[in-house]
Amino acid sequence: MVVTEDLKGRDFLTMIEFTREEIETMLSVGIDLKRRFVTHEDHRHILPGRTLFMVFYNDSLRTRNSFEAGMTQLGGHAHFLEPGAIYTPALKGDEVAYSTERVSDVARVLSRMGDAISIRIYGGKCGWIYGKGHKIIRNFAHWSEKPVINMEDDIYHPCQGMADVMTIYEKCSHDFNKLQGKKFVMSWAYSAGQKPMAVPQTGVLAPSMFGMDVTLACPQEMDLHPDIIKKVEEHCDLFGGSFTIERDMKTAFEGADFVYPKSWGILDAHGIEGVRPAKPEIMPEIMNKYKNWKTTVELMDVTNKGRGYYMHCLPQDRAMEVDDEVADGKWSIIFDQAENRLHAQKGIMASIMH
Ligand code: CP
């Protein structure tokens, strides 16, 4: 395990900026904090009186409440900041008189008053320009004197990735080495809504850091950004897993240990910076061709011994993405994942804010 001194003060913007050893350290801290949470062991001495400023451009149930509860449990406090109620933080050149404030100023002000800043921004909140949300979060990190945490942008959702790895680890006998060689399927699923790319992209990156055999299943129009695929392939070389793309959901599910079927949007030119995701009005036309991409009992029956785990980050569109018999059935670990948002993020905060 790495010394946590190496993690102190670091930004948490993506998982791939950390070594596997560092990720395991933060998750191990989170797992220890989970034990203390379950046994009602007071751990408010870990971040006493510390403040996390949370800037949410987009809605949230899990992320907001897990960070807020997590900070309280660690002895600190989390402030909820909503652009529009504060002057909306904007990049240089994007300012609107007296309704925005430069990210550089917001970041320096908040980092003088507290101990970390976390931000969520994607989709319409950054003009649907792929990479813009991530750029805004990096700009916060550039100017902040305190750690910055990515609570989901338009490329990455690293906190979800950490909770997902923690959940898989728990199902692999609490042994990171046992993730090696397990089949993990990140699959597109139909929804009438337009959803971000951050979860599927983090969803192929994170397991590939642990030597899992990763399959991406999606219609060609829903391919992920090529830079993400390149990184996954690098991980396979480094950590010994494999990467496969399938165009058929059932073929992908065959023998899978973990399946993660969810909806995401379309990059109209595969995500070169400045390129927009496909326009919302053409999305239904494309997506409606694939309404049969839905997780059913029949599909779960072809997973490993018919007992593969069903994963989803939530929120999900029931009846469109998945049948209730699966989401509420014996395969489902979706509420373990949701709970682990709390414990994984406490591990991250305890490691970088101590
Ligand atoms: N999974 C996730 O990030 O959930 P919220 O959008 O509710 O935060």
Please give a structural write-up.
The protein is an alpha/beta fold. It folds into 2 domains: 5-155 and 341-352, Rossmann fold (3-Layer(aba) Sandwich); 160-338, Rossmann fold (3-Layer(aba) Sandwich). 37% of the residues lie in helices and 14% in strands. It is built from 12 helices and 11 strands. The chain has helices at 20-38, 62-73, 103-113, 132-143, 158-171, 198-208, 226-239, 249-253, 283-287, 297-300, 324-327, 334-353, and strands at residues 51-56, 77-81, 88-90, 100-102, 116-120, 148-150, 183-188, 213-217, 242-246, 258-262, 309-310. A 5-stranded parallel β-sheet has the order 9-8-7-10-11. The chain has a 4-stranded parallel β-sheet with strand order 2-1-5-6, sandwiched between helices. The longest helix is centred in the last third of the chain and has 20 residues, at 334-353. The radius of gyration is 20 Å and the shape is globular. The protein binds phosphoric acid mono(formamide)ester.
* Helix and strand pattern: HEHEEEHEHEHEHEHEHEHHEHH
Give the end-to-end Cα distance, rounded to a whole number of Å: 17 Å
Spatial arrangement of strands, main beta sheet: 9-8-7-10-11
> How many whole angstroms does the radius of gyration measure?
20 Å
Strand content: 5-15%
Topology of this structure?
Layout: H1 20-38, E1 51-56, H2 62-73, E2 77-81, E3 88-90, E4 100-102, H3 103-113, E5 116-120, H4 132-143, E6 148-150, H5 158-171, E7 183-188, H6 198-208, E8 213-217, H7 226-239, E9 242-246, H8 249-253, E10 258-262, H9 283-287, H10 297-300, E11 309-310, H11 324-327, H12 334-353
Parallel strand pairs: 1-2, 1-5, 3-4, 5-6, 7-8, 7-10, 8-9, 10-11
This protein binds phosphoric acid mono(formamide)ester.
Residues 60-63, 152, 160, 313-315 line the site of phosphoric acid mono(formamide)ester.
